[in-house]
Amino acid sequence: MISLSAYRDQWIGNIRGDLLAGLVVSLALIPEAIAFSIIAGVDPKVGLYASFAIAVVVAIAGGRPGMISAATAATAVLMVTLVRDHGLQYLLAASVLAGLLQIAAGFLKLGALMRFVSRSVMTGFVNALAILILMAQLPELMGVPSLTYVMVAGGLAIIYLFPYVTKTIPSPLICILVLTSISIYFGLDVRTVGDMGDLPATLPVFLIPDIPLTLDTFLIILPYSAAVAAVGLLESLMTTNIVDDLTDTVGDKNQECIGQGLANTATAFIGGMAGCAMIGQSMINVKSGGRGRLSCFAAGVFLLFMIVVLGDWVRQIPMPALVAIMIMVSIGTFSWSSIKNLRSHPRSSSIVMLATVVCVVATHNLAIGVFVGVLLAGLFFAWKIAQIFRVTSHRSTDGKSRTYIVEGQVFFASADAFTAAFDFKEALEHVTIDVSRAHIWDISSVAALDMVVLKFRRDGATVDIIGMNEASETIVDQLGVHDKPGALDRLFGH
């Protein structure tokens, strides 16, 4: 558990940098929140209120300072059918349940499951998101006046060149201010934030989802809530790892699960939908100097202030400025070294990375891509370990006994090879199985050992197992039958 002093430092350790970064993030959040609301089929204010509430709550209760959480496309797409079939109130209820499931995941320490996600899957996840971020900007670059391209190019020039002048003010903020000023002054004909949708003019109010509290309602929202909870946690935890690497710090993944759950539960009671961490906005935050909890909190507060108080000005922000920022994020997010490493890294690692990228980009579903990547990584790992296995033997001078020496890992992938290494047709009086250089892992390997021992005994040989380590002995004692009464009947009786 984090100490009070460390928690305080996460708020006040980088006040100026966090406030400026939060301002940049809030400006970039507005069109995205509107777009995600449109995806889910709800009013723009649902996504905007959600982004405010999630950012503020996660800043307070989350486990990863410097990471931005808000309404996201990853969760919005999962709610489309629910909104279409049952309406907004059911979406709000589903958001509450999703939040409760995430809180439960945090208390069950499920954040520790991220250790099973390989580096190749992480790289594929990052590259896929970079591609999706870039693809999301294409609608703003197609069928538009040539002036749009000039402004995007100018925005990118400001973003990349301004740091050579000074790093005191984040260059994305300068990009927004300069391009907005030029657009207003010259009355340029380009798309603006106001063209994305109407901004709310009032503060959110507390409300309780108006749905019948019945089992039928629960069964309707449960599948959606479970999907949102799983996808939200997956993206949040993956983004946590990325921010860890960017900042050379370590976030509390289990606390992040709890924080995300509290945020999604809370946002529903002000009319917002569930969300999760945003890798694009988190990259903007980190690259703009945001490091602490204050940056995420400021992003949420600034967002609400700008849409309610400064809405008339925010509507005039040209979309090319925000497109330029997101292109910068896409370029900065993509792991360019992974392309070079395709030649030097093991083929299996490259396949895992590419498969993750292809699945995420093809389905626009982060969970499917990561699941495929983790599955392939597990299969390749099991196959590789299964190859580091052998059984050798030598016969005694009198020809009546044989010693088998087992080396490597005996588990489900090598169990068949283990069984096949023994010659049951050889007439022996005594067999010794030396497992001092091996480890027995699971029920498949225990069953294989039972089979070998009992087959030799059935043919009249005595069998000794020597050198078994303590861990292997424990699982064999629990699951093995070769040393139990009636073992031959139990194994071959059927």
Verbal overview:
There is one protein chain. This protein has 494 residues and is α/β, with parallel strands linked by helices. It folds into 3 domains: 4-341, no CATH class; 347-384, no CATH class; 388-492, Transcription Regulator spoIIAA (2-Layer Sandwich). It contains 22 helices and 6 strands. The chain has helices spanning 4-12, 15-40, 44-61, 73-76, 80-86, 88-107, 119-136, 146-165, 171-186, 215-247, 253-268, 279-287, 293-308, 311-314, 319-333, 337-344, 347-363, 366-387, 415-420, 443-458, 470-479, 487-492; strands at residues 69-70, 276-277, 389-395, 401-410, 430-440, 462-466. The strands form 2 sheets. Strands 3-4-5-6 form a 4-stranded mixed beta sheet. Strands 1-2 form a two-stranded antiparallel ribbon. Helix 6 (88-107) crosses helix 10, helix 7 (119-136) packs antiparallel against helix 15 and helix 17 (347-363) packs antiparallel against helix 18 (366-387). It is elongated. The chain starts with a helix and ends with a helix.
List the helices and strands and how they pair.
Blueprint: H1 4-12, H2 15-40, H3 44-61, E1 69-70, H4 73-76, H5 80-86, H6 88-107, H7 119-136, H8 146-165, H9 171-186, H10 215-247, H11 253-268, E2 276-277, H12 279-287, H13 293-308, H14 311-314, H15 319-333, H16 337-344, H17 347-363, H18 366-387, E3 389-395, E4 401-410, H19 415-420, E5 430-440, H20 443-458, E6 462-466, H21 470-479, H22 487-492
Parallel strand pairs: 4-5, 5-6
Antiparallel strand pairs: 1-2, 3-4
Summarize this structure as a short list of keywords or feature phrases.
single chain, 494 residues, alpha/beta, Transcription Regulator spoIIAA, 3 domains, 4-stranded mixed β-sheet, two-stranded antiparallel sheet, 22 helices, 64% helix
